Amino acid sequence: METVEEGKQIAEAKTETGDGGSSLDTGSSLDNDPYHYTKRGAFTSELFKIEITNLPRYYGYVELKKRLEKLGVKPRKLKKLPNSSVTFATFDNEEKREAALAAIKGHLWKKSTLDAKIAKPVADPVTMKRKNEVEGTGESQKKPKISVEESVTPLVHLPYEEQLNSKQRDMEEFLNSLAKDFHCNIPQMRSWLNVQRSKHDGKCCALERIKPSPIIDGYRNKCEFTIGKDKTIGFRVGKYRDGFTTVASPMPCRNVPPAAKKVVEHMQEFLGQSELQGENPVTHEGHWSILLVRTTEGSEVMASLRMKVEDLTLEEFEATKKNLQEYFSPSGPGNSAGITSLYLLISGKRFKAKGIDSNIYHIAGNAHITENLLGLKFQISHYSFFQVNTQAAEVLFQTAGDWAEVSQDTVLLDVCCGTGTIGLSLAKRVKRVVGVDICKDSIKDAKVNATNNGITNATYVCGKAEVELPGIMDTIRPSETVVGILDPPRAGMHMKVIQAIRKCSSLRRLVFLSCNPQLASRNFIDLCRPASNNYRGTPFRLTKAIPVDLFPHAKHCELILLFQREDEISVEDDKTDSKPLTEPSVTSSTIDKKGADGSSPVDVEHQNECQPSEGQASEVKGVEPLSETPDQPSLGKSSDESAIHETKDGASAQKDMDAMTKSNNEELSKDKGGEQLSRTQEQPSHGKSFDESVIDETKDSDNVQMEMDTETNCPPSVSTGEEPSDDKDKTPLSEMIEQG
């Protein structure tokens, strides 16, 4: 049977699609059965699930996956529980499950003899809550109800200045935590780091005062609304993992602009006339699921309505499409909604078998909208990324451009460029701009935007940054100075991107824009690691940071971090640690003050920061120490280990750091976003079964690394009701606020 932690984390990963009714609902005989989804007759790999136990204390997700492959075990999905020796795997059928049990039982790995047994399917949290409420045994019925405004904008009750102070404190706490991570993971950096911590109240660098948003109400230019099963359009109040599926109107929410609210009102009327039902988040029955609205500072409005078509005939689908087109036509009742671009999105897996040849239909109006930003015009297509607060984005980009310190001799590398906003806004100040993004629509828009704004020194490449960046770096001439601006997904960049940046000796300055620095902290550690086989080139050092508030009334903000090569730090700032990080530094100012163990007084002060509690790793979040076993790969060659452990002296520390290699950043780099769309591949979701959604990878800070279903190969799902932070953060809408 699954552990409590597993049940919580798996339930949290369930696709969050709204439900207009109350959390206590009665209906079919399966309504109070937490395992109802296994009895509908539809396939679910939860029926063929195993629990793998007695795993080594320290192992990585990728490492485990490869170990299972060597045993001939290829699970459909894997779920590795953090800080646990338990992993769950699901399979396509009973035959594969039995073969896996036979192969895993008794297998010796890192001095641990593995065991495996059949595991029960995970209980659906909503039906479990309903069952507890009916029986009067659940604690959920005692939870106080919150309003949609409190759910979507939790800081709305505070004056704006107090909101800014709260976010400033959050960033201070993060930089204090990052200083500890640097201290534990990079012993060679400690001398310099100790000076920075003493200068900046324990933080690893200077933190400037947060920059406010020029607009605090109605700022979101992109909102995704959940459609409940009673066809209420709005935001989910509460989380699915807590048993809540209620959807409430967005009208009280101060961050939603009036133009978007007007579209909601008219679309609500259209759905009221439709014979089709809203999607039930528990049974996945129904049709309407998501309404996305994008607005501009002008008067342009893009709307897209998402529906499931599994139980519709082609004739019924065509009739629905025609009704939508007529309702919002110039002579239709929805004309006053002001929609200038209308789309219909199709979710599900079998729509092509019905003769429906596309998952997106342009119903009416223009194919795109246009926004003005920093004196330039930007074309925005349906799937393209664009910051959700246009006026605050201008502040963000201006600050990033100033910190980049570009010149006419600079090559600007714009990674995760979206529609080209950052690079094009700086194009006239640099020699040339090179942008990279995985979203085809974003790259098309970026090229169009360069042409429309008369910019000829910008080129754009479509592809994964980790794949394209090494080749782009090879085109940089030794005489050219490179400045990089990274605006990555919430979880940060792929390790190969960091490696390519480190290797490019011409890249001396890096401006990192992060909407969730806690999740991206692994990137910050890797940028600053000593030179090794895996991280070649002079390390960077984090020199300063500044928050920019893109999300008033929400808990999150953007953080700009400036990294500079450690050999370019000024003598004044670096006088206590002038040696490069490839060797432990010992200075005259500290040599006489060393303790018996070789540590400085400040090192002694912070040495407990690296002491793990029993059963826990001491490293940066998501990183696990290497296990000293005969199975340990040779130094510098492993592709699976995800961390290093603290060592007793500088020499052994260097060896361990060289042993650090490709990590689980492959999962962390799954793309960005604010609305459960992938920032790197913003595509409509293909409606997921309970099985697919119940243990699919989530995009928030509590996520556990999960293997995506290789058969369905479905793109990331569209946001399902919790307000997202922006396109690059793919968090549901009721957390949209909280995630920025």
Question: Which key features would you list for this structure?
Answer:
single chain; 740 residues; alpha/beta; eight-stranded mixed β-sheet; seven-stranded mixed β-sheet; 21 helices; globular; disordered N terminus; disordered C terminus
3D structure, described in words:
With 740 residues, this protein is an alpha/beta fold. The chain has 21 helices and 23 strands. The strands form five sheets. It has an eight-stranded mixed β-sheet, with helices on both faces. The chain has a seven-stranded mixed β-sheet with strand order 10-9-8-11-12-13-14. It has a four-stranded antiparallel β-sheet with strand order 2-3-1-6, covered by helices on one side. The model is unreliable at 1-30, 138-142, 574-602 and 612-740 (pLDDT under 50).
Side by side, the strands of the main sheet go 7-22-23-21-20-17-18-19
Could you say which overall geometry the principal axes of the C-alpha atoms support? globular
The chain-level structural class is alpha/beta
| Strand residue percentage | 15-25%
Question: Ranges with pLDDT <50 over ≥5 residues?
Answer: 1-30, 138-142, 574-602, 612-740
Mean pLDDT figure: 75
- Largest β-sheet summary: 8 strands, mixed
Measured between the Cα atoms of the first and last residue, the distance is: 36 Å
- Rounded to an integer in angstroms, the radius of gyration calculated over CA atoms is 26 Å
Number of strands: 23
How many alpha or pi helices? Answer: 21
Helix proportion:
25-40%
